Amino acid sequence: MASLERGDQLSRKNIEISVRENHFVPIEQHQDPKGEDFNYAKRGQWLRAAILGANDGLVSVASLMMGVGAVKRDVMAMILAGFAGLVAGACSMAIGEFVSVYTQLDIEVAQMKREKGTNSAGNEEKPEDEQLPNPFQAAIASALAFAVGAVVPLLAAAFIKEHKVRLGVVIAVSSLALLVFGGVGAALGRTPMARSCARVLVGGWMAMGITFGLTKLIGSTGL
Predict the structure, then answer these.
(1) Residue 186 confidence class, pLDDT cut points 50, 70, 90
(2) Per the domain annotation, does 31 fall within a domain?
(3) Residue 8 lies in a domain
(4) Structural domain boundaries enclosing 165
């Protein structure tokens, strides 16, 4: 009998120890040693719009200026082409973002109305109103981001008269700006820096090279 009681006591202690260990281990696994609990995916929407707008403005205007520079040596022709690209691109980005975000707004409002019709607690919908997307804000932000990127090659070529030097400066300044945009996006989103910068830089080089080469080819054939 004494051996049975001791066996029962030992088994109870083992059960208590295992329960305590199983109780505390999950808590330790969910703890963040660095104290970083911020969800960087929340930055994805506005970060994508800002980086896309600035990168699009830079690559579009720089490629347009390189294309004009392939057949025209006049600095004013490159500047006018770049300025026209800046205005047209900013307007296009603003309108496109406005239509896209307004469509998203309509979908979310319709979904909220359906949920409100099936849910008797109507007060729970008020906090969601403040989180709805703003089409006007998105349009202005996209246009400004595009203009910021587009003004870089314009300023680089504005004060250089020598044709070949001007083309080289546009490529160099645009490449540096692309590296900066890629680095900023990687830093804010906590993604690999080298991969992000290389992806943005190679894409910009391809766009400028293809535009320059095709325009040069068409200009040389006299079409």
Answers:
(1) confident
(2) no
(3) no
(4) 44-221
